[in-house]
Each structure stands twice: as C-alpha cells, then as structure tokens.
Amino acid sequence: MFSQLRLNAWSTGLRSKTTVPLRVELWNGQRLDFSDEAPRVTIRVPHASAVRYLVSPSLYNLGRAYVEGAIEVSGRASDMISVVNALAAASVRPHGALRRFMRALPHTRERDADAIRYHYDVSNEFYRAWLDPGMVYSCAYFENGDEDLATAQRKKIDHILTKIDMRPGQTLLDIGCGWGALAIRAAERFGARCVGITLSENQQRLAREQVARAGLRDRVEIRLQDYRDVGGQFDRITSVGMFEHVGVRHLSEYFARISALLAPDGVAMNHGLTTTDPNGRATPYGGGEFISKYVFPHGELAHLGLVIRAMQEGGLEVRDVENLRRHYARTCELWTENYEANAGRIRTLTDERRFRIWHVYLAGCTHAFNHDLISLYQVVCGKAGSAPANHAWSRRYMYPC
C-alpha cells in the first residue's frame, strides 16, 4: 500500500510538471499514461518493490533497474533515453555526490588494465556486430554529413593523419590502438613504421590478424603494453579515445610521457571525450554514475580547459583544437541503429545484462552529445619550445582540396 501511495503521489506530481509519451504498467494491471499521444515508451513494473526506482527516477536508478531486470522497458532506444531524461529533469537534482567518491579511487596499472578489459574484452564479434567493417570504436568524421559509417571512419583516420602532418617513412606510436585501423592506414598511405599499444588481449589478437591480412607485419607492431612502459622516440604520436581512462589527476603525467616519447620536431594528437561542465562534474541526473558503474569503470572526463593546462604542464604546446561534438552524436546514432538492427545476433554474443548496458549506453551518448553534456576534441600539439620554423604557417595543409 505504501508503494502504491508513493507512486500515486509521484505520478500526480509528474503530470503537473511535464508531458512525456510514456506508459507505466504496474504489477496489479494498472496503467499510468503521461501524455495524450500514443506512448512511445512503456515501463513495466513487475513487483511493488521496484516502485522505488520510479519515484526517484535518476538516470542511474532507472538505468540500473533496467540493466538488472527490476523493470522492463520497451521502445526505441532514442525514445527511451528522451523519456528517462525528461523524468529525471522533472524529479531529481542534476548532480549528486557519487562523482566525488568515484574520483577518489586511485588509478593504478592493475585497476586501469582491469577497466580496459571489462569494456573491450566482451568479444570481438560483439563489437563487429555494430561497428563499421574497419572496427573503429571512436568518433567518426562526417566531412559532408551524408557519409555512411564506414566512409566517415576512414575519413576520420585520414583527417588525423593529415592533421599531424604524417610523412613517408616516419615512426608512429598509437596509444590505445583499438583493433589497429589507424596504424594500418598510416602504414598503407605513408609507409610509416607503427607501434600500436592496447591493454585488451582481444584487441591485440584481432589487430595482429588485421595487420597480417594487410601484409604489413614488417611495418606495424601491435603490443599488449601500458603507455608508461613504452620506450624510444616517435615522429608522430596519436591517442584516440584513450586519455579518458587515465584519470584527471594523472593527465599532466600522461602528457609528460607523450612529450618524452615525442621526437624534438614531432607532432602529437589527443582525440578524446571531455565534459562540458566547467567544474568537471559528471553528466547530470546520474548519467555519469551509470557510465562509471556499468560501462567505463574508473573513467573520468576533464574539461577542455583542464586538458590544455595539463598538456602545457606536461611539456606540450597546443597548436590546434577542433570540436567534433556533432560528429560524435552522429556516430553514436549510427552505432545505435546498427545495434538495434542486429539485436538478435548481439543477444547470442553476450548475456542479457550486457546487451541492455550497451543498448542504453549508445543511445544515452547520442543524447548527451546532441545536448552538449559531453563533447569531443581533437588537440594537435608538439613539444613546448620547439623551433617555430618547423611549424606550418597556416592550417591549409589540414584541409587539402
């Protein structure tokens, strides 16, 4: 009875604040509609004990309830995320306290490696089911806006290689190389001698297979290695979708390591996610807490201002900054479409819990990028104090006709 009373009070209060195309179906057969239009999302509450998730509908609470099977949610992922965000905005505070707890956890080699394996070692076939054929798991580049995913991912890699002014025969270190697409492309286009490093055994295995298939084993080496253990110097260094795992407190050390590995006249690029909150808070309404628990354990996003400061502290000079937020929103939208189109196969490749995690994660990221809650920046840099004569006078070389 207490749960029913709480639910009635919540539903009455919600209707006074917002209208959403949502239907809630209760364990006792009761239906609650929150719009005059046909519901695009249905939440089924099979037991009275699950009411607590509804009456405090943060993104973390509702996401957790869905992932753990306490509630059932039906509808397109994009509609689900829109409805849940509306519920959260009408019912809970934007920011909680869990972010501070997550930030307090130290980043050790072991913890970082475990976090990488948790996210990336699901299975290569799982990722193959919804990524592009090149298995590129980072923001694509839509030069014209009408490219398909495979084309946009190839353009992204070429955009990076052009921006770092990759030249024939140079050496390249790709930190967090994924399944090897960037290193392979650099070797194919420029004859570069490449080292790609990852902490994921699944990624390393498939990346090596891709390298062998391309006939590039003499030019591309894929290592299972922590960036802190890499030696030598490289003409070019790329870090794509990697520094989010480093930890905000360790960014200066991370960029100092890149500076130490970079040749005196070398060029590096960091391509990574950032928070748009100037105070470095997690995405609102519990979205950041959900990502920390279920998707990227110990992942942290820094504001762009902090990234640039950390680069300078690490001995790097920022030369170019480009915002690709719109591009990542489109990338995540296409990933979500692929995920839903291949849902049957994906369910055979993992368990229901992980299927739900990635389903709401991809759609949630689309929403977050579209609404400027998170962003993506490419930052080109070189060693601080390097000779200006070695720098291009303009950005024209980045956008060849």
TrEMBL record:
This protein's UniProt keywords: Lipid metabolism, Methyltransferase, S-adenosyl-L-methionine, Transferase
UniProt keyword annotation of ATP-binding present: no
InterPro entries noted in UniProt: CFA/CMAS, CMAS, DUF7884, SAM-dependent_MTases_sf
Pfam family, one: CMAS
Domain of life of the native organism: Bacteria
Domain DUF7884: 10-87
Keyword Lipoprotein: no
CDD domains: AdoMet_MTases
Similarity comment: Belongs to the CFA/CMAS family.
Protein name: Cyclopropane-fatty-acyl-phospholipid synthase family protein
Organism (species): Massilia soli
Source species taxonomy: Bacteria, Pseudomonadati, Pseudomonadota, Betaproteobacteria, Burkholderiales
